[in-house]
Every structure is written in structure tokens, then in C-alpha cells.
Amino acid sequence: MSALEPETAEQPDAEGVSLDEPVPGQGWWLEHPLGRVGLSTLLALFVFVLVVWNLPASEVRSRLRPEAKPVVYALGIDQNWGVFSPNPSTTSLAVEADVTFADGSVERFRFPDGNSVFGAYREYRWRKFERRVRLDDYRRLWRSTAEWIVQQYDDREVVEVVLIRIFSKTPEPGSGDERVWESVEYYTYTVEDDR
Length: 195
Known about the structure:
With 195 residues, the protein is α+β, with helices and mostly antiparallel strands. It is 34% helix and 19% strand.
């Protein structure tokens, strides 16, 4: 065959395998027409569920989202675009803790920040946790959060942990206003309660 002749699907590749034949061991779904139809159907359903889940608020979304919810949660693909426009959060939030040691010293605990390369992914999980644990609706997490903070100081004797909500309204862009931070102590955990 010359370089000018088109290659056909019947011709083998460099390793002598026909390009027209399925590779053995790829699975019945690729070797059988019904398998390919089933796989294509699952893929189409997956794309449909993703589209439904990310539709803007509408009657169609309200009707279809409950049907998509089990699939979305089972696959762990739920997401929320609330951090983006048109309505991003206007308040910056954090949770910190004042940790009191047996010697009377106090240290401010802050949830972990990550490095500049991959840290954003780890940090995002902590920021999401902070947004939840500060709310009264999540008070069931307060004690276990304080206990976890105590465990971070296993080399020192902790006697008390005070959880603190820290928040600030984001100034309007271009206003020149400075950010004002406020803080409120909202839960006190005394370690000797467990002794």
C-alpha cells in the first residue's frame, strides 16, 4: 500500500489488532449492541440529571428536581452556584476559638488554611464547615467541634474552649468603606465536664 492510499478500518494497526474489532476484555457492554445502547442510555440520563439539577429556579426545575435528587446525592454530584452572581454572599464569616490551658494561658485557634497550590480545595471544606457550625441550627456540632479542637493540643492540657463567631459585611465595591469585623462568643466547653 502506498502512502497515498486511504487506510480502511479492516486493516490492522501496528500491533496486528484489527481496528474494527472490540478489544477482548473490555466488557460485554461494548461487545454487544444492547450493552452499548444501555451504556448510552445511562450516559444520556446522567447528562439529563446534571442539566435538571443546574437549571435556574423555575416550574420545570421544581417538578423535575425531586426525581433527580436520589441520583444526584448517590453520585455525590450535588452542587450549588450560590457563590456566583447574581447573588453572591455579602457577609464574610469565620469561626475561631479561644483555647485556655491549665497554666492559664490562652491561644486563638483558627481552622486550617492550605498552601497556595492545593490548599484552596482543603480550605474550601473548612470554610463550608465554619459556615455551618456557627449557626444555631447546628448546635449539635458545637460540643464535638470543641472536643476536636482540644485534640489538636494533645501536648498541652486544655481546660476550656470558647467558640467565637466572626463576621463582617462586605463593603459595596468602590465605596471606599473599610471592612468592620465583629465577634460573638457563642459556646463554651469546659474540659473538666468530661472528667
